[in-house]
Amino acid sequence: MNELHTRGLALLRAGREHEAATCLREAISLGPDDARARYHLAIAHRLRGELTEARNELLAALELEPTLAPACAQLGGLALVAGELQEAMSWLSRALAIHPGHRISRYQLGVALRFAGHRTEAISLLQASLEPGPGALPPVLAHRVRGQLVDALNDPLPGARPLAQCAAPLVTELLEEREPPREEAPHPESSREREMRVMTPLEAARLLAGARSILALTGSGISVGSGLATRKELWQRWDRDAAVSVFKFREAPNVLWEVIADFLGEGRHRPDAAHLALAACPDLIGIVTQNVDGLHQEAHREVHGESVPMPPVIELHGTLLETRCQACDARPGRTAGSYVETAAPRPPRCERCDGPLRPDVVLFGERVAPERMGQALDLVRRCDALLVVGTAMDVAPASELPRIARANGVPVVELKRTASRLSRSLDTVLVPGESDTVLPELLENLRQMR
Ligand SMILES: [Zn+2]
Asked: What is the pLDDT of residues 263-314, one digit of tens each?
């Protein structure tokens, strides 16, 4: 490995993909035969969401080193995300032929087989991917595999799934050079290359005083003040894989409606102080949210009225304000809440075909529409400050967005009760506290600095 390659890899590990890519491109121009430098450049592209570039570098790496199993595995993952099941299976089988113990290939091939309708083979591969020993999956990934496994074991339906419902695992794996595999999220004290800074709302406002294109990324924590359950609370009461996966919905559609009733609870939900402060935020270019409650839009109407256009709100996981038929896709034009309030049968039925109605949200096993993800990526690339509010950022693909912002050198300020995986793995700023207290305080300070 030449010196530039070593430095590029270190930058990649430090979450600085943009600089890593520049450095690795230089390494390749000096040593065009370095397959591993191309592999690492592919990972940098992949982490920045540049999937075509990633694919091209992986193909170039394999030209140079045809037995580079992780490159085959990455190509398999990219094909899986694109819904190309046959291509995915062929790359992943090739990876396993080269390196039969490769856990990530076992996992991804298990997913591909499952969606291709080969359930028994899928289950045995998913189980094999969880084997302990050298090369074992990191805990976060193992958790995802177990979710897939539960779905596969509970899934009585034979036959292939429609591709649109392919749950796409996109796994990043760095090739390790003479180093033992590391834990996914090193503790901050044990890592010199990453640091988390804790700030007061006033200090964070000073940091953002020059920002003119602010983007907010929000999760369930921002709606706590509105009386909605957080994801964490919900998953303490419900088995998330069983309750809100598309597979479970096909089997027992009433369960999802029970979860929605539990989530919404009693009465009408109004925007809280955090939604309202954000709606009044100067230089806000948009909101990317994992929430499905529509409260950002309502806050905008409350603050500005109907006539002021709202900056874009990208609802990555869809919305409870719309419903559709699982069978025929008809849209009755009613909110999920309206069915819950009127004690409609669970599930409510489609007037056209009697199929089960569902909220227009993304269930586990489904994926975020690439178009919505593309809009979110555009906003992340345009912003010069990113506020991450009330989310642990542990669900892909939303978890990729702060990483991309950091790679562009954009300050990322996280407002959350406690540090998340995000603040431990990227050099973000943490403003600890309840979002309906600290966000209004931060934005009020920011407004006074203008
Ligand atoms: Zn229908």
From this structure: 888 778 999 999 999 999 989 999 999 999 999 999 999 999 999 999 999 9
Rounded distance from Cα 359 to ligand 1 centre (Å): 13
For residue 52, the tally of other CB atoms under 10 A from its CB is 9
The mean per-residue pLDDT over the stretch 184-200 comes to 55
| Cα 325 to averaged position of ligand 1 atoms, centre (Å) | 5
Ligand 1 centroid – CA 347 distance (Å): 12
Q: How many CB atoms lie within 10 A of CB 157?
A: 11
- Of 102, 269, 296, 317, the catalytic one is 317
Is 317 annotated in the active site?
Answer: yes
Superfamily of domain 194-228+269-317+368-450: TPP-binding domain (3.40.50.1220)
In the chain, ranges of CATH 3.40.50.1220 domains: 194-228+269-317+368-450
Alpha helices in 194-284, H assignment, sequence order:
201-207, 231-237, 240-243, 246-251, 253-264, 273-279
CATH topology of domain 3-167: 1.25.40
Instruction: Round to whole Å and give the CA distance between 238 and 391.
Output: 19
pLDDT tens-digit readout, 93-150? 999 988 888 999 999 999 888 888 888 889 999 999 998 888 888 766 777 787 778 7
Predicted structure pTM score? 0.62
